[in-house]
Amino acid sequence: MSQFFQIHPQSPQPRLIKQAADIIRAGGVVVYPTDSSYAVGCRMGEKSAIERVRRLRQLDDRHNFTLLCSDLSQLGLFAKVDTAAFRLLKAQTPGPYTFLLNATREVPRLLLHPKRRTIGLRVPAHPIAQALLQALGEPLMSVSLILPGDTEPLSDPYDMRERLEHHVDLIIDGGQGGAVASTVVDLTEADPQVVRVGCGDPAPFMADA
Known about the structure:
By secondary structure, the chain is an alpha/beta fold. Helices cover 28% and strands 22% of the residues.
């Protein structure tokens, strides 16, 4: 049976954020809101928790996981970022974008795309997600909360509770969530490529198209 925390979406209660971070550190799987949609996450090096997320989402080993980072300096520890990519990242973060980048050795192997050695990285703007990252002091492994058979992320925390209470350790109710996942942009080549159009405006990455 999962726990269910109601956390204020603009002024997250520090006590509840600390408890949520403790659950993640202990190997828990957590549902939480971002500035695009709700997501499901765990500690980035926690193999058993990552496998639970894979089973929940029915993901294969070619799926690009995302590391949620608190800021660009943390992101830079886990991705190889050249000057052009850094300018784009600086202009568009925090925000509802996931960026595919070449990973550094700091990224656990089980999170990497098996052939490309890439990783998705994101700096969220949502206060709850940011508070969690600050409390953890490290990135959070994350994927959108799109369950098998669904085409959109779950957006109602009470629906999540009904469907997931036996599959995750904590559901954070931060209010009604968005029904559109983040926009995904591939920055591994010289020219940015929009892989998926979501709730982030793709225009800044299509200027030369």
